[in-house]
Amino acid sequence: MVYDTVIRCLGWKHGLGLHTPRTAPTMQHNGKYPVMTHEYESVNVPGLHYAGTIAHGKDHQRSAGGFIHGFR
After folding, report:
1. Does residue 72 sit within a domain?
2. 56 within 8 A of 33, measured Cβ to Cβ
3. Global pTM exceeds 0.70
4. Which of 33, 45, 46, 47 has its CA 20 to 30 A from that of 8?
5. Is the pLDDT assigned to residue 23 strictly greater than 70?
6. What's the CA dihedral at 43, 46, 48, 53 to 10 degrees?
């Protein structure tokens, strides 16, 4: 087979470059997900809520909430 481009997708980490030192969220030990309350709010930045893939930190390694089954 001949390929034009090969793309390796090896995961990701949350980029903190958008935050100032005052608004940077506390991150979990893996550096990938922020620590959040049961309401998906940052534990150290009041009013900062999470939605989408980044909110998967609530159930990371306990359920398949961040995984699309059968996706190719």
Report:
1. no
2. yes
3. no
4. 33
5. yes
6. 20
